[in-house]
Amino acid sequence: MKRILLPAAALLLLAACGSTETPTAAPAPSSPHTGHSAASAPPPTSLRAGERFVDLALPQPYTPQGPNGGTDDYRCFLVDPGLTTTSYLTGSQFLPQNAAIVHHAIFYRLDPQQALQATKADDESPGEGWTCFGDAGVEGQTAWVAHWAPGAGETLMPGGFGFSMPPGSKLVMQVHYNLLETGSAGQTDQSGIKLRVAAGTTPLQQLDTALFPAPIELPCAAGESGPLCDRDAAVADVGKRFGTAAGEQESHLIEGCSAGKVTPGDTQHCDQPVRENATIYLAAGHMHLLGRAIKIELNPGKPGAQTILDVPQYNFDNQALVPLPKPITVKAGDTVRVTCTHDAKLRKLLPQLQKLPPRYVVWGEGTSDEMCLGILVVAAR
């Protein structure tokens, strides 16, 4: 997903984190997750008052190709919802036309200057869209307003809330294509999205997406060996496949989360202080194929501590952004912790990974790399 060198929203600021002792691993699912879900999404729910649907899709099929000898292609496409008045994005349903190769998708709102940059990037790149590992490929802060990962259907924002869409707003549709599957070479995709848009005649409370990352320091499993089991070699390999900035991502997380101390282990966490008062309405966790468990907590170990999201048996094919049973308020000075457990032994169980050499796993953009990311949809208060 998104490359995170700095906070994605004013709500959070990277601070202290570290490694924890490995807990008892969650039991393996009876059929390990495959990395893709081809099930048809259910139809969208009925429109609410003031809403309408806007359907967008790639104008022609795109054929993914993994650059630099890799098996992952991050491609950005500029899409125009045609908004001429102030509006709000109140829901979305991504429609992966070829679920066998679509790993995830993120939609970023662009301001007019960024839209010009995106148009230039598109014009200068052959074929549809442009390469954009980890972000939208434009300068400045972009607003994350929608995303899809396997298991997600339509995502609805709470009534009275939405992502602000000023007149003329355009979107970057970033699609991560995973080409590890046998037979994926040469396949095409023409994905789209159904946006739920509300008129701005009645102002809604504005939502933001806050991202809470933690590092990954997962050594090769017992009995595994090879050149990439060396951490430095593995980090260099990420940079080779996805660029220098991607290769530096883990170092940024380690520096911001544990003052530069590397502690290898299955489980890592990161504590991040809240910078302003807000209310959390939806949450999701994102890891890749070696993920076992993810938890997002508020003020852990302190009076009034709460669990925001707890997924003790993570399934890559079920990553929907879910409404909280009850919205959770946070205030400046609170702490949000994200904790992830990964399992290198899953590499031998998953067909997509069995053919790859063992590696020391760090944060990386590829399906064979890993992430630890808490995703929260919030509103300032």
TrEMBL record:
Boundaries of every Copper type II ascorbate-dependent monooxygenase C-terminal domain copy? 278-373
The source's superkingdom equals Bacteria
Record's keyword terms, sorted: Disulfide bond, Signal
Point out the signal peptide segment: 1-25
Region spans: Disordered = 22-46
- Biased composition (Low complexity) is annotated at 22-40
InterPro entries in the record: Cu2_ascorb_mOase-like_C, Cu2_ascorb_mOase_N_sf, Cu2_monoox_C, DBH-like, PHM/PNGase_F_dom_sf
Q: Which Pfam families match?
A: Cu2_monoox_C
**Gene3D superfamilies under this entry?**
2.60.120.230, Copper type II, ascorbate-dependent monooxygenase, N-terminal domain
Per UniProt, what is one GO molecular function of this protein?
A: copper ion binding
What protein does this entry describe?
Copper type II ascorbate-dependent monooxygenase C-terminal domain-containing protein
Q: Which organism is it from?
A: Actinoplanes cyaneus
Lineage, highest ranks first: Bacteria, Bacillati, Actinomycetota, Actinomycetes, Micromonosporales
